User: Which sequence fits this backbone?
């Protein structure tokens, strides 16, 4: 089928008249040169249909928006600059963005989902790893599993873990109850701030934790462990609740509170409780002394870096932190340096102290390398980039978890 040279850009209009308006629409004018005159209308219709079907198959018009590569095949007149400036690419949905903390993406539509987020799982993991590592270290110092194993101690160990988890959930839960205004800005995914868990239900959960945890400790453990548990719960509560509200009294008080609970009290308390259950007299072993010192310093760094992703809400509500005073980039650099010093002291103790050199020297050197790699990635992404800051903070928790695994072999 050939097109006349003079008719390539011509169009014939078909008018449809009504009593008041005239509507016009273009119809392609296609002719062909045939040896035997003008073709019949039926033949023309078949040719027209064939052209439309062939064109549609060739273009492969997708149901979804085409990619940039496929759009280049279509030649269209260039768009004016003023039109391009008036439009912008739509923002991707919030759920499609990768999140630094996996608990943020959990749905709170059900009570279990809301409860899971309410307990702050990344802190629960740290507590469980501390309990596991403390038990392993205490059993090893007491003579080994073959000498110490008793089936009757298993329910007591599980009950102690439940008490620790109740204390953890109470401390992080009461913080959410008193920080709703700040969390609405900093952590809108948390269940109370998101409206997925009502304050009334949150108070019921906290009441259950406040009753179950101390009751288990009172029933099964000696007075020293009871005192440590109650003191840790009090410090964790004072961090958030007036009139103490240590988090609002400056970064030093807030850091000491977190370092005390998650550093010294947790590691020393678990180790002492296990030895007491095994009826082994307590004495300061090099391993538990190192771990109490090292993790207290590490928890202090976590207390500082936890404010890095929250700087917007802290500035809006007037909460004093190192990040609001010195900036995110400087605080991240200082925290990385502090952790490197902590790792260097661990390596020095591995060289000159009564420890196994491979885990103490090699293991801490490897963790220091992980820290530097993650800090470098954060700086490359941008010191003020929100996702990069969250990723950096998450990487510090990853090193925190790995330290407990290393503790079992030193």
Assistant:
């Amino acid at each position: 089928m050939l097109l006349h040279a003079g008719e390539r850009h011509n169009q014939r209009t078909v008018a449809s008249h009504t009593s008041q308006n005239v509507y016009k629409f273009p119809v392609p004018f296609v002719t062909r040169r045939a040896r035997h005159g003008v073709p019949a209308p039926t033949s023309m219709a078949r040719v027209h249909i064939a052209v439309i079907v062939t064109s549609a198959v060739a273009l492969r018009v997708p149901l979804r928006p085409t990619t940039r590569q496929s759009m280049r095949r279509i030649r269209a007149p260039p768009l004016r600059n003023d039109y391009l400036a008036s439009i912008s690419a739509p923002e991707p949905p919030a759920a499609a963005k990768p999140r630094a903390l996996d608990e943020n993406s959990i749905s709170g539509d059900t009570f279990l989902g809301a409860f899971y987020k309410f307990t702050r799982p990344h802190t629960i993991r740290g507590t469980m790893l501390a309990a596991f590592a403390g038990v392993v270290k205490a059993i090893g110092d007491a003579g080994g599993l073959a000498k110490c194993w008793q089936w009757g101690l298993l329910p007591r160990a599980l009950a102690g873990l439940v008490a620790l988890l109740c204390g953890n959930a109470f401390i992080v839960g009461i913080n959410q109850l008193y920080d709703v205004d700040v969390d609405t800005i900093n952590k809108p995914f948390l269940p109370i701030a998101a409206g997925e868990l009502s304050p009334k239900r949150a108070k019921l959960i906290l009441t259950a934790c406040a009753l179950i945890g101390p009751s288990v400790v009172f029933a099964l453990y000696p007075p020293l462990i009871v005192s440590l548990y109650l003191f840790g719960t009090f410090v964790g509560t004072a961090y958030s609740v007036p009139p103490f509200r240590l988090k609002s009294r400056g970064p030093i008080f807030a850091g000491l509170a977190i370092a005390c609970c998650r550093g010294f009290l947790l590691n020393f308390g678990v180790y002492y409780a296990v030895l007491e259950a095994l009826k082994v007299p307590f004495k300061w072993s090099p391993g538990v002394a190192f771990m109490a010192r090292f993790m207290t310093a590490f928890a202090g760094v976590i207390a500082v870096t936890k404010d890095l992703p929250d700087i917007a809400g802290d500035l809006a509500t007037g909460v004093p932190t190192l990040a609001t005073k010195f900036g995110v980039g400087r605080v991240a650099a200082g925290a990385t340096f502090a952790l490197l010093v902590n790792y260097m002291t661990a390596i020095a103790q591995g060289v000159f102290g009564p420890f196994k050199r491979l885990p103490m020297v090699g293991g801490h050197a490897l963790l220091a390398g992980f820290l530097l790699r993650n800090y470098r990635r954060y700086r490359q992404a941008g010191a003020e980039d929100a996702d990069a800051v969250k990723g950096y903070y998450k990487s510090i928790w990853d090193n925190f978890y790995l330290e407990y695994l290393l503790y079992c072999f030193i």
Q: What stands out?
A: Strands lie at 11-17, 22-28.
